[in-house]
Specification:
The protein is of the alpha/beta class. The chain is 26% helix and 17% strand. The strands form six sheets. Strands 11-10-9-3-2-1-15-14 form an eight-stranded parallel sheet. The longest helix has 17 residues, at 180-196. It is globular. The structure holds alpha-D-glucopyranose and calcium ion (CA).
């Protein structure tokens, strides 16, 4: 089938099922809840939904540890209700993407259970290795790689005495894609869902699936990531992804790969070859941290702008970008890059700042109503496996209060609190106490109150999404950054067949003086998005208010306007 490019004009809504909506009153989000909210999702104007894993899972990593790839977690429903959701979404013109988590399985997956037996044909589905001997004759781990989630990357099985590899948590053993039988399983799983009618996959940490043969120890130690050079973008990665692409090509579908620490040059090797249509990179999520959200640094707008522009400039014209500011792996963006004191204003500014760039935009549940971080009084009240590990390490050299602040600011749990639907008990998410804490600001921050206010963040998202899907410059326009040196403003333009958009974003919590870049006469532009009423006549210079946003549209550029 010819590969289509409808993915370029879509806006995708991400659902993390456990916290979206509880339909059967047990405190856990589920597909019955999703079914009841399809009209709401459609009302946002998005035309696709990506589900974080819906598969059966012991929930060591909330679904990213899959114990059965061909069914639905009974907590979330069954295949019958999934089919209803799929049909309901399709009827409303929305595509549906599944999360394909095949770098690893759960240790409770029957393949892994069988693989514990050395003689089993499943042994080679995973990386089982004997320990090494030190010079002194002591038993050592098979190599020096770190797990990204829990200490070292190896866990010993008491029965055989051998170790299995886990780049993530102990309960997430890595699958061996060098084994053709494993690749066949992946292809069969893809077909299973594509035959049912799903429209593609978001492939979890997919650039990690090809490990360097021999699994060599790393010479250079990276903080908590030693060995990564031997499994990120590994030797056979393109061959394997091409095999998976060949299956996808039998259908009309989209493949999106998630890739930690990805560089644009490397992304192009996946995108230009067509192995993947889209890729999630993390560069712009590091404007207030180093490599991982837990290692916090003061927010740097320059760092954010560099990341945005580097991806825009290097990908544009050669492949297609993927735009997001929130997902289930990062704390809420208003609490990070904006301000809770200017929740609506900074929320609108942040929305426009990423969505009007070139690429396919993603919106994460709760982002559209400006949900903010969850601050629990004790670090051990958070439940995420990655955070628990970070706190354990940090507690060795930091006081408890410092560890708590780091946890509150960085935890993935902040993105995983129940969706705030109304001011009813439990935020209208459930009729009983939910599986996890509801953010207390739900009395003010909820869908119902946002619906009631024409000027709300939610309604702003609706207009912005409609614009992003319809406006030719917002979709296809070339990207140019302006005012690069500014530490307060992020400014860029998009241009397509004479139409120009100028996006002006203040990241400052104070008033700041702004002058429009050369070539733009603001008085000639139409102000199409803003987050404050204008209190002065339009002038090329103005004093911006905290987190002010202005988006101007210009007709065909006149000659003297050229820079
Ligand atoms: C991806 C997922 C994340 C998960 C990890 C391991 O980064 O987005 O939630 O913990 O992979 O599967
Ligand atoms: Ca439920």
């Amino acid at each position: 089938m010819a590969r289509s490019d409808w993915y370029k004009t879509m806006v995708v809504y991400q659902i993390w099922p456990r916290s979206f909506c509880d339909g059967n009153g047990d405190g856990i989000g589920d597909l019955w809840g999703v079914l009841s909210k399809l009209d709401y999702i459609e009302s946002l104007g998005v035309n696709a939904i990506w589900f974080s894993p819906l598969y059966p899972s012991p929930n060591a990593d909330f679904g990213y540890d899959v114990s059965d790839y061909r069914s639905i977690n009974p907590e979330y429903g069954d295949l019958e209700v999934f089919r209803q959701v799929l049909e309901g979404a399709h009827e409303r013109g929305m595509r549906v993407f599944m999360d394909l988590v095949v770098n690893h399985t759960s240790d409770e997956h029957p393949w892994f259970q069988a693989s514990r037996d050395r003689e089993s044909p499943y042994r080679d589905y995973y990386f089982w290795r004997r320990g090494r001997r030190s010079r002194a004759g002591e038993e050592m781990l098979p190599n020096n790689w770190d797990s990204l989630f829990e200490g070292r990357a190896w866990e010993q099985d008491p029965e055989s005495g051998e170790y299995y590899l886990h780049i993530f948590a102990k309960k997430q053993p890595d699958l061996n894609h060098d084994n053709p039988a494993v690749r066949q399983e992946v292809k069969d799983i893809m077909r299973f869902w594509l035959d049912m009618g799903v429209d593609g996959f978001r492939e979890d940490v997919i650039t990690f699936i090809s490990k360097t043969p021999g699994l060599p120890s790393a010479k250079v130690k990276l903080p908590a990531a030693t060995g990564m050079e031997f499994y990120a973008d590994g030797p056979n990665i393109h061959e394997y992804l091409q095999e998976y692409r060949a299956v996808a090509d039998e259908y009309d579908c989209m493949l999106l790969g998630e890739a930690p620490r990805l560089k644009p040059e490397t992304a192009l090797t996946y995108l230009e070859s067509g192995e993947l249509d889209l890729m999630f990179n993390f560069a712009h999520m590091e404007a207030d941290c180093l490599m991982t959200d837990f290692l916090q640094r003061p927010f740097s707008l320059r760092k954010l702008k560099r990341a945005f522009s580097e991806w825009q400039e290097k990908i544009d014209g050669r492949a297609w970008n993927t735009l997001y500011l929130e997902n289930h792996d990062h704390p809420r963006v208003i609490s990070r890059y904006g301000s809770e004191d200017y929740r609506t204003e900074s929320g609108k500014m942040l929305a426009a700042c990423y969505m009007l760039q070139q690429g396919t935009a993603f919106v994460y549940q709760g982002q559209e109503i400006g949900m903010t971080n969850l601050r629990l009084p004790r670090a051990d009240m958070y439940v995420d496996v990655m955070l628990k590990n970070n706190c354990r390490i940090a507690s060795k050299f930091l006081p408890r209060s410092k560890v708590l602040t780091l946890a509150q600011r960085s935890c993935r749990d902040s993105a995983r609190t129940p969706m705030q639907w109304s001011a009813e008990p439990y935020a209208g998410f459930s009729s009983v106490r939910p599986w996890f804490y509801v953010n207390e600001n739900y009395h003010e921050v909820n869908v119902e109150s946002e619906e009631a206010d024409g000027d709300s963040l939610l309604n702003f998202y609706r207009s912005l999404i409609a614009f992003k899907r319809a406006d030719q410059a917002a979709i296809w326009g070339s990207y140019t950054e302006h005012c690069r040196q500014s530490g307060n403003f992020y400014v860029y333009s998009r241009e397509h067949e004479g139409e120009r958009l100028l996006v002006i974003c203040s990241f400052s919590g104070r008033e700041q003086y702004f002058t429009a870049p050369a070539g733009f006469d603001l008085a000639d532009g139409e102000l199409i998005f803003k987050n404050y009423e204008l209190n002065v006549a339009v002038d090329n210079s103005f004093t911006s208010r905290p987190y002010e946003l202005r988006v101007y549209r210009f007709g065909p550029a006149e000659k003297e306007d050229a820079e």
